[in-house]
Amino acid sequence: MTRIVHYINQFFAGVGAEDAASIPPACAAGPVGPGRRLAALLSPEHEIVATVWCGDDHATTPGAVDEILDLIRAAQPDLVLAGPAFTSGRYGLACARVTVAAGDAGILALAAMHEDNPGVDEAGAIPVVASGPSARHMGPSLERLAAAARKLASREPLTGEDGRINRPARRAVLVDRAGAERAVDLVLARLGGDQAATEIPLLRFQPVSPAAPVDPAAAAVALLTEGGLVPDGNPDRLESARATRWLRYPLPTGGELAAGDYCSIHGGFSTVWANEDPHRILPLDVATDLEREGAVARLHPEYLVTTGNGTSVGNARRFGVEWAAELRRAGIQAVILTST
Amino acid sequence: MRDDPPPGLTRIVHRVDTVALGDETQYDAGVLTVSASEAETVMTDPALGEVRVSWVSAGEPARIVKILDAVEPRAKGLGGGGIFPGILGPAKPQGHGETHVLQGAVVVAAGFLPRAQEAVADLSGPAAALSPLGSAHNLVVEFSPAPGASWEAVEAALRRGLCRLAAWLASAALDAPPDAVEALPGPAWQAGDGLPRVGAVTNIQTQGSYKDTFVYGQSFGLSLPTLMDPNELEDGAVTSGQYGHPALKNPTFLYQNHPVVAALRDRDGRDLRFAGLVVCPEPVEQGRKELISEHAARLCAAAGLDAAVVTKEGGGNADADMALKMDALEALGIPAVGLFAEMAGADGTGPPVVVAPTRATAMASTGNYDQVVSLPAVGRAVGGHRVDLVDRPATAPLELPTAALYCALSPLGWGRLTCQETV
Amino acid sequence: MRVGAPRIVPTRGIPYPTGDPSLDPAGERAWRRQLLERALAAVATPVAGPTVFDVEAGAKKEE
User: What one-character DSSP code corresponds to residue A216?
Assistant: First the structure.
């Protein structure tokens, strides 16, 4: 019989709503609130032996996750279930952090929330299954959570069919056979009619919602690049690969980039041409012409740069969010990003 | 209609079990002795200043850093006998006759080049299994440039010097009784006999300075996809001047010992007919990528291939060539399997492939670029004093992404790394 | 395009996205101008999903 601890927030524990968001972690034996329905769906093979809850605001304070984990561990669970958090952002983040901490402590863990909940991105390798958008969808959300919990407890992998939102972690391992031999195995499998044979499952990127169009003649425009173009000598040591940061530099007032003043430190292509003429990476000369002619209202006097070579998608997404915030603060309506 | 099969190549294997430095270069019963002064003379070039050779062998608590190219000692006769055509001597077609191989020894250049990326190989410990150098006796050539020499001249001197050294060492074994004699058949250009015809499509990096690959001594960048006899690779028809992407690198050594060709040859006549090798450049320009990929697919169809294994050199840029080729092949009804390294982030949850094929789906994994490997301290490091990537002494314990380990994510499929999903 | 960026202007080479070393300097600057003008036209165009704005042709939709 699997021992489960269920993590919920102050609202679903029945303690209070926003007024109770600062309450510290607490614990009770057995299921609480929606946990009762969850327990029924999981019985008899699995039992919710304890419920831990915490105020959503308190859960964000330093040390709170450790306190919560202590309460969880005291109940000696085989599995931790958190949520469903629906679209509630603080609750979703708490679920993510609690399940990550449980995972780090060696306990199987699973969270449930809506796919738009910011907690999804914080869950790392912990599986997150989709719930409905609000508590009105509690019934089907609990059913999905329970079904996923059963699979997880039997150590079966969770896929999109189980409602899994985030990607499972892929770890590199050494096996007996070389990649070339395994590739030939896959060829023979394909020739034998197995259309699905693969070691790497294909995934699709989440689509980005396009921004509404703007009239460039009325717009402030910024130049951005992931071509690693930095002042000569790379004074701030931007990485040539696997960049963890981005930088901003002022554009020269003359409206042109002098070769020799700039270089590209990008490790993914031969930088000879970029170093000969930096405008091949950052088109300042033409952008300045367009500003002078009124084709754009104004050109932002700084450019933002990172290196797009083996950049993790997580970091790239973060850079994009940070760039958007910075440029919005600077009153920019449109950007031109050069990509290498 | 021709009846006689095309000529093949005979590989005469001499195993190297023990190595030493000594007064004379000689090979006898598995022991390879090298005269350091003779080797340094072989490397002599106006563009190179001081050159120093040393042995670094599998099992030693040692590390080689700042690795450039690696070449297997091979020769077809005295003075090379035609080996490394276009690099040593005139570019005549090779891949026939006899080729002597000193198996278990590798000649390696290590040291600084301005656009080389930090590349590390351990000879013991957890990382030794991740590099072909980790299980070999490596004759490491450390160098400094001659004052005033351009880096382009230094780089070309290293390439010529390594090939010359490799040929010269193998020449020491020309008269030795072989440990093995392997008959490699000529290409099955037309064979039918009911087995599926499977080919290898090998994309080689052709980005110019420091990121280029040479076929018969010439950059392949402007070429169209070319059907080659795989045995030409045995004789060094393809040599590497590509110094980026340490884990995703295909050194000369792995063209001489092409893993996909070996895997297909292994099953030749049983499950499949190994029907050919198509070598393609990896252009940087999008329009040209599309042309090369479409052209390669048509060449495979014309060669009567029923399926292909596609490989690359490099990272995301090269993935674009992979995706285009695999999709172009599938569009012609030729199932394509691609070898990809995954860039799944340090925790493994990132999307594994940035540019994935849309029609083709069969992909073999060669590991995770971002996964960190812990390397222990070592007693000796050759090739440099520091690992600049993490700003630590080269002998220190190191935490490195797999991306920095020499050939660890081998796009040619040499390695045994793959990725599996954790629950 | 597969990465999902909504507005894309294709260029001629990875090492020189807003350049073309096969042209003379005046020709290259003119090509760069064409790319940027196309980019500004793309910014002014409503799109529903990933859309390619070729300098040579008009806008074409990603399949």
Answer: G
State yes or no: pLDDT of C62 exceeds 50.
no
Cβ(A183)–Cβ(B201) under 8 Å?
no
Structure tokens at B177: 């009784």
Confidence band of A322 (pLDDT split at 50, 70, 90): confident
Q: Which domain holds residue A102?
A: 2-162
Q: Please answer yes or no on whether B339 and A183 come within 8 Å at the CB atom.
A: yes
Question: Among all residues of chain B, which has the CA nearest to that of A153?
Answer: B423
- The count of structural domains within chain B is 1
Kindly determine whether residue C21 and residue A295, on different chains, have CB atoms separated by under 8 Å. Answer: no
- B350 in a structural domain: yes
- Beta strand residue intervals within B216-292, DSSP E: 218-219, 226-228, 238-242, 273-282
Q: C17 at the B interface (CB within 8 A)?
A: no
Q: What is the pLDDT of residues A213-239, one digit of tens each?
A: 999 999 999 999 999 999 999 999 999
Q: Where do we find the tokens 């303690």?
A: A15
* pTM tops 0.80: no
Question: Could you tell me the residue range of the domain that residue B168 belongs to?
Answer: 9-389+397-404
Task: Spell B337-359 as b/e; 16+ CB within 10 A means b.
Answer: bbbbbbbbbebbbbbbbbbbbee
The beta-carbon neighbor of A208 closest among C4, C33, C44 is C4
CB of C59 within 8 A of CB of C17?
Answer: no
CB-CB neighbours of A171 under 10 Å: 17
Residue A63's contacts (CB-CB under 8 Å, 6 or more residues apart) are none
